[in-house]
């Protein structure tokens, strides 16, 4: 009887150790799987590079130049705004406004090999828009 109890205890201890090791390895596997992240991506042919946007003139539907893309606003890893330089002449009197990316349609012409940007707005509407200032943490 003593031998049976001893063997039963050995089996229970072995089972406890095995389940502890197995449980720990499963917890590690779950943690490793959930913390893994994608580091490298492949740029798609339809993607736009920031260098294609910066300096691009923005026209309205009447083909008037209404601004120039000067900068990009990135929030939490995603493009959240385009900073446009509006108004002024030869850099004098210009001001900056931030517009939502969907408000500006950016296209590439395969025939001309050029990028263009259009926005359904007017110069007056952009002049009345809230001003963005390069100051504080955004100071250049």
From TrEMBL:
The keyword rRNA processing does not apply. Pfam families: PRC. The keyword Ubl conjugation does not apply. Residues 1-29 form the signal peptide. Keywords: Signal. PANTHER family: BLR1072 PROTEIN. This is PRC-barrel domain-containing protein.
